[in-house]
Amino acid sequence: MATATVPVPDSEVPVEEWTIAVLGDRGVGKTFLARAFVFDSFLDMLPWQDESPPFTKELLVDNRNCRIVIPDDYDSASELDTAAPATQWLSPVQGILLIYSIDSRESFEHIRAIHAWAQRHASSARTTAVFVLAGNKADRGDPQRGARVVSKDEGAALAKELQMECFLETSAKTAQNVFRVFPIVVRAARAKKAEIEETERRKRESKRRCVVM
Ligand SMILES: Nc1nc2c(ncn2[C@@H]2O[C@H](COP(=O)(O)OP(=O)(O)O)[C@@H](O)[C@H]2O)c(=O)[nH]1
Ligand SMILES: [Mg+2]
Description:
By secondary structure, this protein is of the alpha/beta class. 40% of the residues lie in helices and 21% in strands.
């Protein structure tokens, strides 16, 4: 397992571990995006890191030490079904980063199905993963290159419709939002965990009150 070392968290403080799955069509840039984040190594940059997933990176998110684990990336929901028992694979996952490429309408249109697939399996795995949507290859959105076929507004609208936590465009070539997107997933997963813990605490509290009365 490859481990990035920068920035190194203070070993005195406990490390939170967050497992983030990266899902989307083949070729949208899932592996390059994860590598860019973990190794600070961008498309066209040499030397190229040759490590294969799972990737891990330790860093501070809002002053709390985190270890982000990015398991193997899967190319589509249908492949996922055959790659591993889905519920088993998804059970440690707390955040799901759904990726399409802004130069591929097909990859954008597949997001709905992949989201539905992940929700279906996540609920049977008793996972409460949060979802974030990213339109990758944003560098290809330069109007002079004319490669963009999915607008930012469409990406934002889809994320809203599917009630995802956040939408942003990324690039494993220019580093655009690469170091924002993974911490965003961590923050959302943290908030979700806190919400669940609070609900459970309230449930316990009200049960206790019932017993006392
Ligand atoms: N222009 C551009 N190309 C990218 C970007 N990310 C990945 N690619 C290219 O897309 C191809 C597929 O990327 P990869 O990460 O292997 O896709 P995956 O199948 O989703 O894991 C690579 O060969 C890269 O050349 C990006 O942000 N911008
Ligand atoms: Mg890949």
